[in-house]
Write a structure and sequence with these properties.
Structural class: alpha+beta
Strand content: 15-25%
InterPro entries: Ubiquitin-like_domsf, UBX_dom, UBX_domain-protein
Mean pLDDT: 77
Shape: extended
Order of helices and strands: HHEEHEEHE
Keywords: Ubl conjugation pathway
CATH class of the largest domain: Alpha Beta
Number of strands: 5
Distance between the termini: 47 Å
Largest sheet: 5 strands, mixed
Low-confidence stretches: 48-58
Protein name: Plant UBX domain-containing protein 12-like
């Protein structure tokens, strides 16, 4: 047992160095990806400004519908509201109320509004079930009630 412990003590500095190197490589990769994304955004903005007038809404830039004001318990009966909890790629968890009759596409608008502009990229939504998952498609025009999303947890992941 003593030999294993001394071996671990000898290997420990190398393992720490390796984790630091991996983290620095991840930072470099993130920085390059962010720079490339910024360049791509500048190109798209210049193309968009020449072809049509630019919209001030960041949701309109990605083609998402504008997000209405969040419904509250005071304004609506509890039976017509649903609460969606969203796990973002950076680990944060947020939640918001929607009307059950609203389009699921508003969930994309909400998720897009919660992601920092510097990290904005194409993403997909996944609803996790015990032992399985379901990928949500933006093109579906279903309501929260029809889709089975009412009062559930959804994860955002990069495409």
């Amino acid at each position: 047992m003593l030999e294993c412990q001394s071996m671990m003590e000898k290997l420990s500095p190398f393992m720490d160095m390796a984790s630091l190197e991996i983290e620095s490589l991840r930072r470099i990769k993130r920085t390059k990806r962010d720079e490339e994304a910024q360049e791509e955004e500048k190109k798209e903005e210049s193309e968009e400004s020449t072809t049509s007038s630019s919209s001030s809404s960041s949701n309109a830039y990605f083609g998402f519908p504008n997000l209405p004001k969040e419904p509250t318990n005071r304004d609506f009966d509890q039976s017509v509201l649903c609460r969606i909890r969203v796990r973002l790629p950076d680990g944060r968890i947020t939640q918001r109320s929607f009307l059950k009759s609203e389009s699921v596409q508003l969930l994309w608008s909400y998720c897009n509004s919660q992601i920092d502009e510097s990290e904005r990229n194409l993403f997909k939504l996944i609803q996790a079930f015990p032992g399985d998952y379901k990928t949500l498609h933006y093109g579906s025009n279903t309501t929260f009630e029809q889709s089975g999303l009412a009062n559930s947890v959804v994860s955002v992941s990069w495409v």
